[in-house]
Design brief:
By secondary structure, this protein is α+β, with helices and mostly antiparallel strands. It is 30% helix and 12% strand. The model has no long low-confidence stretch (mean pLDDT 80). The structure holds zinc ion (ZN).
Length: 155
Amino acid sequence: MPQPTPHVPPDVLLREHGLRITSPRVAVLTALAEAPHSGADAVIRAVPQTAETSTQAGNDVLHTHADRGLVRRIQPTGSVARNELRTDNNQPHVVCRSCGAVEDVDCATGQPRCLVASDDTGFVIDEAEVTWWGPCPACRNQNAPAHPTPGVTHA
Ligand SMILES: [Zn+2]
């Protein structure tokens, strides 16, 4: 089982990253805490549409969060970009080849060890990503091909 992401309240996260606390910023962080691996559309839909906010504003918030390191964007090959709250451990993922479902999975040997290259070949490695691929349980149990559902994660 993956280690649970420690819950840090959105206002604390924003302050830690030097960002002003605004309702769209809080809404984006809350949406990703509730539904990790969401596509941008799903995250932006979670931002209340008011006079001050719009789809573009939601997009801007998502970009700001990614730039400031609050949100990590992952893009499995052939899938829409997904977003998740960034943690220091660069959580590995498993991705379904049929429906694009994404789940968090820990390395069998423990994350730090698994992410250490046997030879850095002179590079100063500062990041590693691990993605495993294969059919999810729902797709394995279906004979009919699954329809992609971007932004939706199997519970
Ligand atoms: Zn699937």
